[in-house]
Amino acid sequence: MAVKQTYNVERFFQALGDHTRLRLLNLMGDQEICVCYFVEILGGPQSKISRHLAYLRSAGIVSARRESKWMHYRIVMPPHIGATQILKQTLGWLKEEKTMQTDRARLTKACCSPSKYVLLEGAPPPIKLEAPSCEVC
Amino acid sequence: MAVKQTYNVERFFQALGDHTRLRLLNLMGDQEICVCYFVEILGGPQSKISRHLAYLRSAGIVSARRESKWMHYRIVMPPHIGATQILKQTLGWLKEEKTMQTDRARLTKACCSPSKYVLLEGAPPPIKLEAPSCEVC
DNA sequence: CTTTCATATACGTCAATGCGTATATATAAG
DNA sequence: CTTATATATACGCATTGACGTATATGAAAG
């Protein structure tokens, strides 16, 4: 039978212990976002973004969905009430950080006029989610 | 003038991303505790405990007080409302974890009969704190 | 099938971290 | 001063993690 194994708390916190990953989570918020937006807004090599997204996936904090060429990422609440509460609180906290506000503003701007960004030509826009999918709430 | 610099969020989460450090924080709770109790309850080499306590100190999550030969550690709430809330929530979460409950039970036991533990002969007992010292609440 | 585009992974390097062992430091006791 | 006790730090080693660069994969277009 399926034994309810203890959630990996350490891995969860480790995933939150990196600036780039926090920026990614902040951009996702309650939206499902295409990787190309992350690359555009965070800058730097695309592989860097992809590696951090993989880390978040391995920690069970985000999930990915393929849509033809594009990959969409969204936050998924961990299967643990404690982790879920902390993640939500962290996301709220990030909204007050200056860097994070700037990132979000740039995302909004990019979404309004994607044609101005070479990387975003024809890119699928973010999809507003009703509520962050949560397995415990 | 003293500029309010941004709190190091990443360092905060990194400090929480280790099992031994979470066990230490769980044992402290709202008490000020002598290092010898940590050594007794967590087991393993004393240097390991000391190193993790140093890490928590460097992250600003605990503070140390010397009382003759003994060092007492307590949790100090970070100078940031967001981090404080998350730390409190984490401490509450830990109380529900099995390993953490066992640790706390062992601490209680050790405090009731310190004479049974060679390491704790004459050790100063934990000191209940009125409330976790918090700089932002 | 070949090319193109979006994304993921492999590789090599370097810094950070965790651990056990040994040693240093600080205080108290004799 | 010497010794004993409590705690912290230094050292060497193994692992993890972050990075840039290069390459692989997967899907669509020609």
UniProtKB/TrEMBL annotation, chains A, B:
Q: What is this protein called?
A: ArsR family transcriptional regulator
Per UniProt, residues of the HTH arsR-type domain are 1-98
Q: Pfam families, per this entry?
A: HTH_5 (PF01022)
Q: Which PROSITE patterns match?
A: HTH_ARSR_2
What one GO molecular function would you report for this record?
Answer: DNA-binding transcription factor activity
- Cross-referenced Gene3D superfamilies, in alphabetical order? Winged helix-like DNA-binding domain superfamily/Winged helix DNA-binding domain (1.10.10.10)
What are the record keywords, sorted?
Answer: DNA-binding, Transcription, Transcription regulation
Q: Does the keyword Transcription regulation apply?
A: yes
